[in-house]
Please model this.
Amino acid sequence: MSFKITFGTDGWRGVIAEEYTFDNVRRCAQGYAAYMLEKGNAGKWIVVGHDKRFSSEHFAAAAAEVLAGNGFKVYLTDSATPTPVIAFAVVNKGACGAVNITASHNPPTDNGFKVRDETGGAIDPDGLLRIEALIPDDIENVKRATFQHANAEGQIVKFDAHTPYINHINKLINLQPVKDAGLTVMADVMWGNGAGYFPRLLSGGKTKVLEIHNERNPSFPEMKRPEPIRPNIDVGLKATVDNHADILLILDGDADRCGIGDENGEFVNQLRVFALLAYYLLEIRGERGDIVKTLSTTGMLNKLGQMYGVPVHETGVGFKYVAPKMTETNALIGGEESGGYAFRGNVPERDGILAGLYMLDFMVRTGKKPTGLLQMLFDKLGAEYFYDRIDTPFRGDRKDREAAILKANPVTLGGLKVTELVTVDGFQFRLEDGGWMLIRFSGTEPIMRVYCETTHKDKVQAILQDGLKVAGLK
Model:
C-alpha cells in the first residue's frame, strides 16, 4: 500500500523527497483527473501552474503529463505564477479547473498540490473528499502521457498568464492616481511569485516601488518561511523605516496573501487589514454586498455589516469554505485570519496583489498613511480591537482533546464572561465585549491554534493563557 494522501485546509502539502515525491504528485493528479471526468469535463482544458520552490516546475510538468494521459488539454504556465493569477487564468481561458504546485507559506522543505474548479476558486470540502477517494493506491494505476508527445500534439501548451491578469487588474482599479501620488512603497515579496508585479503595475509616475527578496531562492533567507507575519517580515519592516517608505506591502510565497507594515515599521495584523479593506469598499468606494469571513477572523466585520446594512456570513477556516459562499452570495469581500482576501469582480480566490493595490488606493483617496487609516476605522467602530495567536504542537488523540475542551466549559476567559460557544470549526468562545477566543486544530500540521480578539489590550495575553489551559496545553 502506498502513502495515504490526505487533503487539508487547502489541498495537500508534504516534505519534498519524503512523502512529496513525483509518484505521489502523479497519484494526486490522477485523483483530480478522475474527479473532473466524473464532473463531465472530458477533453476540456485545465490550467497548471507552480511557484518558485525546489523543482516546482518539474512537479507541475509531471501533473500536466497525467492530465494529458487522461484526455485533458493543459495550459501550463511559462514561469512561476501567483496563485491569484492562475485562478484568473482559469476563467480567462475558459478552463474547467486548475492544479497549482505550491506550498504557499510552508517552510522551504515542503511543497504542495492545490486544486481549483471552473470559477478559479477552491473546491468545496465534499469535492476534496471525493478527490482523495479517487487517488489510486499505486502508481501503476496512473495514466500518463509523455511531456514531449503531449506538447508536440498541442495537448500541453505553455502560455503567458501574467499579461491578461495585469489588464484585468487595470479594469478593477484606476491606478493612475496611485502612480501620480509620489508614494514610496516598500514591497517584500518573500522570494516568491509576486516579484515584479507592484513595480510593473505602478510604473510610469511619481510613485516609487522598492522591492526586496525578489529573486528565486528556495531556502528563503532572512525568514523561517514565506508567511507575512513576524518574525519573517522583520527585515522588510526595518527597510520601510530605513527608506522612509509610506507603507510596506508583503506578499507570501504564492502571492495570495497580503501583509501590511505601517509608515513607522510596525506590523498591521491581518484582522485589522481585513476590516480596513471592507471599510474601504463600503465607505470610500460606496459599494454594497455580503461579507464572508471565517470564524477565526475579526468581529469588526460583524460591526461594519450592521453599520452598513450588509449580511455577514461566518464559515469554517479555509477558502474551501469561503470561496463557495462568495460565489453563492456574490459577496463584496471574503477572507480569513491568515491574510487572504478575495473581492467581487475578481475570481473567488485570495489575491494579495489586488489587496495591496486597494490599500494604496485607500491611502491616496484619503490622503492618509496606514496609521491614519486605522484611526479612521476605530473612530467609525467606536473601539480599538486587539488580536494575537499562539500555535503549539500537540501529541495524542484529537478526539480526546476535543472532549476535554468541551468538558472544561469556562465561565470566564481573561476575566471576561463567556456568552456563547460556537463549534462551526473548532471551539470559539464568544466574550461579553464582542471579542472571542478560538481553539482549533490546524488542517495542514499537527498544531493546535489558540486565537483571540478583544477590545481590551491589557487582556489579550490573559485570554490566550486561559485558552491554553482550556486546550490542555498548559
Notes: The chain has a mean pLDDT of 96. The first strand starts at residue 12 and ends at 15. Residues 26 and 63 are 6 Å apart (CA to CA). The radius of gyration is 22 Å.
